[in-house]
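Hi there, hope your week has been kind to you so far. Would you mind checking whether the tokens look sensible for this chain? I owe you a coffee for this, so here goes:
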Amino acid sequence: MDETIDVRADIGTILEKVESWINGLIRLVPNLVAAAVLLAVFYLLARLLGYAVSRTLARRGRPALANVGAALLRWSVMVLAFLLAATIVLPSLRPGDLLSGLGIGSVAIGFAFKDILQNLLSGVLILLRQPFRVGDQIAVSGFEGTVEDIETRATYIKTYDGRRVVIPNSQIYTGTFTVNTAFNLRRSEYDIGIGCGDDWETAMRLLVKAAKGCEGVLADPAPEVIPVGIDAYQNTIRLRWWTKSDRASVLHTQGRVIVAAYKALNAAGIDMPYPTQVHLWHDQTEQTDGDRHTQREGWPAGSGDVPGPRWQPREDDRS
């Protein structure tokens, strides 16, 4: 009998709890509706502001920053909307408590996602300061190619041999990189050796003329030559010229200049030497080989007036 009463009491308690939850949910319906309306309004506002920011930055020639800036603005507005909606649904929840909890949570998230946040901040700074843009040709971390896209986490580079390299933004922003197309013009140079007996002035005049006649070499600034060395087997002349800064112009023009310089010097009979070495071999074989008292080291065998040994053996050594 007592067990039956206990079971009924437990069922009654559970029903009372469920009824209180339902009543509480019913009382929260107006707050939930208001919070939903608030979220919808803020969502539309976030989309509108993001579109305006994206269009403004795109018109100013910064499409990559337009996408990132619009996304960050939308997320910021929606986070604010969720905080306001939470205070509407739960009136007892104060904004100060939310902000303090958000601050503590931000610290924890910052430690947990340090690398991701560092790349995000670096990406935003790259987009704001624009050390390079999409389409620029850069060299960074041992890779060189054309910038395809700049995202908040990484920068995408297409190498000259058709591969894609993904480099974290923090590695780019905190490191050293070269922007090859930062300026319209780029200077190239090549060292050319001539024979030690050839005329400097004639060779330099021919090299400048050859460079000027090559496609891609700019007339202003004009090509120039500088003597840079009197070396062991040649006199070295440095030929310098200017081209457009993109990789294709630099590489193809350099090939034309090298061929033209070779043909010009060769037609004029100017020597273009290469390193040579002479090895002299002589026969040291003679009857005294192996006898340390009489062997003449380093001299060929012969008769008549030939050099004597480096040292003469002593009488007591001969005995």
